[in-house]
Design goal:
CATH class: Alpha Beta
Strand content: 5-15%
CATH topology: TIM Barrel
Radius of gyration: 18 Å
Strand order of the largest sheet: 1-2-3-4-5-6-7-8
Shape: globular
Bound molecules: flavin-adenine dinucleotide
Length: 301
């Protein structure tokens, strides 16, 4: 990797964890302007407007209330917002579909507490014929995620999970999810897998394609969460009939338009909320060239 990018990535990931700096920047108008590309806005009505616009352009949408690890009242408020999002989507004629991070609804307080908050969101989803995807996070949270999602699914809740191709455990995880009829979003993985990783990017890509093949052989709904055209071009006709591509809001809009034109169903994962600092910095770290867009927006071009 280019040494400038490597340095930028390290600095950006460090900055993403600088909570005090984040709180400060999040309050400023120039800060909000700089992340407009990746984040739909601060409030539910604005997020719903953005989702309606995406729907008019031929996409489906998953909304995500941005938030990092929370407990207590702030985890309650995150969970209440996820439910409010589902209701607002239904009221606006959108498909009610949200993603949730278990750490944001109090995984730090234990499985039972997080599962209870998730169940409130799932009950709302069930009431509006919606769906909730539980995002995959750090390696040390994956066992808890699987336990909580499996219990919710066994109780008949409309819940799905995420499998990260960069983890050695993912083949076995996928088999368990398939056996429990849990819909899967397949991604490369955004978190450092440490010693449990499959290796460099080529190995991750090969693992992704092997897991994709296994999913295509099932009759579960499939979501391929990737912007990698080379991977997408290898997925084949059966994948296109059975699955959808999911892309992050503000990333590879050219690809999104092209996939729709080629007959793919495309869902845009659209985050919103005032706590946009860590998420946006992670997106910039994935591709430091994004900094160029941010700097341009700051000088108003
Ligand atoms: C809908 C969705 C949901 C996700 N959910 C999770 C989750 O629950 N858990 C998890 O660990 N990870 C999740 N991820 C992140 C994922 O794991 C990867 O970190 C991320 O998608 C980059 O990998 P890639 O497959 O796009 O391939 P890459 O090889 O990283 O990228 C392929 C190409 O896409 C473009 N690209 C990728 N990222 C960016 C960016 N930030 N800005 C501009 N261009 C970019 C570049 O052109 C790049 O060459 C999700 C991703 C998506 C799309």
């Amino acid at each position: 990797m280019n040494p400038f990018f490597a340095l930028s990535r390290t600095v950006l990931l460090r900055m993403s964890r600088a909570a005090a700096l984040g709180r400060l920047v999040q309050r400023t108008a120039w800060g909000r302007r700089s992340v407009r590309r990746f984040v739909a806005g601060d409030t539910i009505p604005v997020a719903v407007e953005v989702a309606l616009d995406l729907k008019r352009r031929g996409f489906t949408v998953t909304l995500d209330r941005l938030g990092e690890a929370s407990t207590g009242a702030s985890a309650d408020s995150y969970a209440a917002d996820a439910s409010a999002l589902l209701t607002a989507q239904a009221a606006a004629g959108l498909e009610p579909n949200v993603s949730v991070k278990l750490t944001a609804i109090g995984l730090g307080e234990g499985n039972a507490v997080a599962a209870a908050r998730l169940d409130r969101i799932l009950a709302t989803a069930q009431g509006v014929n919606g769906f909730v995807r539980v995002d995959a996070e750090y390696p040390n949270s994956l066992d808890q995620m699987h336990e909580i999602v499996a219990a919710a699914r066994a109780a008949g809740r409309p819940v799905g999970a995420v499998v990260q191709a960069n983890m050695q455990r993912s083949g076995a995880d996928l088999e368990r999810l398939i056996a429990a009829s849990i819909p899967v979003r397949l991604v490369k993985g955004a978190y450092d897998p440490g010693a449990e990783g499959v290796g460099e990017m080529e190995a991750v890509n090969a693992a992704y394609l092997a897991l994709a093949e296994r999913l295509i052989a099932t009759n579960l709904p499939i979501a391929f969460g990737t912007h990698d055209d080379r991977i997408i071009s290898k997925l084949g006709a059966a994948a296109q009939t059975r699955g959808e591509i999911q892309l992050l809001y503000g990333v590879r809009s050219d690809l999104a338009e092209r996939l729709v034109a080629n007959g793919w169903r495309v869902r845009i994962y659209t985050p919103y909320g005032p706590d946009w600092w860590p998420y946006s910095l992670r997106r910039m770290a994935e591709r430091p060239a994004n900094l160029r867009f941010v700097l341009r927006s700051l000088v108003g071009r």
